Amino acid sequence: MPPTSAGDRVRRLRVANIWLDALTEAEVIGRVREGWATGCGGSITTVNIDVARAVAGDAGLAELVARGTLVVADGMPLIWASRVAGEVLPERVAGSSLVFSLSEAAAADRRTIFVLGGEAGVPESAAAALAAQYEGLQIAGTDSPPFGFDQTAEGVQQAVAAVVAAAPDLVFVGLGFPKQERLIEYLRPALPSAWFVACGGGIAMAAGVFRRASPITQRLGLEWAHRLALEPRRLARRYLRDDVPFALGLIARSGTRRIKRRRAESAGQNRETR
């Protein structure tokens, strides 16, 4: 059975061994705003192919992902796999897009945001850019934890304390998987009415460190190629050796499962008509 999702009204679909919420980006934003209005916080976990590949071989990471209040597909191969399997996720919901759309919602609702993650100066640049773009957006604070902070209890406590002291309504956490999801689990009990977004490289994109792919490139599922062109040394091995084969295998396995399901349904119908 799928883990309980926010509000029980969300339909979760299984892609590989990950349960993903069948939500559009607009619906995700609506749920966050509804939470603000009722004082109910939560977390948003964005699953791309990197995350899906890591989760496929680690039950503990799968459980970590499943504990997100909302778990959305941040990768077109996941959308394609759901379509091949016959259970369609409505659209990709990217962490890099949520940084902007949720900031716009926060500005409209007079809510505060905290930007956590990235190299020194990056969260500050991202916060300034978002505040300039969305009139009325209130910045509660920013923080760039030092490399390796999560290796000690003291480092984690300092990162948590910085956010808790600011008491924001919305926190963008861009530390990479699974570091950001684990830190969010420390933060949620301390700020139960806040929302936390595991946004990966979304903070760097908001700061202008990386150019976002064009909307057409995103719709075609080629944003990985855009990122590869920007950072070939860092990403070539991961994308070409690991992610592309995994994505192709995921889609193929989804098709196989659909065929098996249809055969089982057909066999069941034949038995009933005898």
Q: Topology, please?
A:
Layout: E1 12-15, E2 18-21, H1 25-38, E3 42-47, H2 49-56, H3 59-66, E4 70-73, H4 76-85, H5 95-108, E5 112-116, H6 122-133, E6 138-143, H7 153-166, E7 170-173, H8 179-190, E8 195-198, H9 202-207, H10 215-219, H11 223-230, H12 232-273
Parallel strand pairs: 3-4, 3-8, 5-6, 5-7, 7-8
Antiparallel strand pairs: 1-2
Helix pairs in contact: 1-5, 4-12, 7-8, 11-12
List its traits.
alpha/beta; 274 residues; two-stranded antiparallel ribbon; Rossmann fold; 12 helices
Structure explained in plain terms:
The chain is α/β, with parallel strands linked by helices. It has helices at 25-38, 49-56, 59-66, 76-85, 95-108, 122-133, 153-166, 179-190, 202-207, 215-219, 223-230, 232-273, and strands at residues 12-15, 18-21, 42-47, 70-73, 112-116, 138-143, 170-173, 195-198. It has one domain (10-246): Rossmann fold (3-Layer(aba) Sandwich). Helix content is 56%, strand content 14%. It has a 6-stranded parallel sheet, sandwiched between helices. The longest helix is centred in the last third of the chain and has 42 residues, at 232-273. The radius of gyration is 19 Å and the shape is globular. It starts with 11 loop residues before the first strand and ends with a helix.
